[in-house]
Hints:
Strand content: 25-35%
Oligomer: single chain
Number of strands: 8
Amino acid sequence: MKALLGVCVIGFIVIAVFTLSKKDQDITDLDQGDNEEVQVEKVAAPEPKAEETQEVASKEPEQPKVADAPPPPPAKAKDPAAWVKEYKTTNFSAKQGDRFIIDKKGQPLSRVPSSLKVEVKPADDWQEKLMAQLNQEATFSEKGDTKITKGDKKFLMVDGDTGIPAEMAHIKFTAPDGAKGSFSAYVNSGTGEILMAFNGLRNGQAFVPPTE
Length: 212
């Protein structure tokens, strides 16, 4: 009887030890599971990629825009009166009779053309004819203050083989708007027509005089 009771006690102790060992193992497994979940959560947090970091670091700041250069100023229109401002009535040399020989642009010739023909006869009233033509021009006013001064030289203006007797005249006038003007001209001695006008001034500024 005592032997049977001892066996029972030993069996009870063995069962109790086994039960406690099982509980300790379950607690250990549970702790490991929790640690794995924590590790999984820590691993799940993404870190910035090295390539993205390099890309942000290598991105240069934008340079400020440079304003476009302004367009060049428009070219000045050629002054049509420029050549007459530089014209000088000097250095005449070749003569036929009492007239100096010039070309149709007023430039002196060094000799008289051998085949030169003069078909126009000078007229004594060329100034009156010139005045009548000037009064028809819109450039001049109707005040009647236009003044013609005869030059001290006489000319033959050569065009090809033809020579035209020409007088030099200096004209002063008042324009319809009140501007004061003046110019010089070679005038056909027979008809009073202006052959070439030059040295035009209007209120002190160069202008192209009328040539008819």
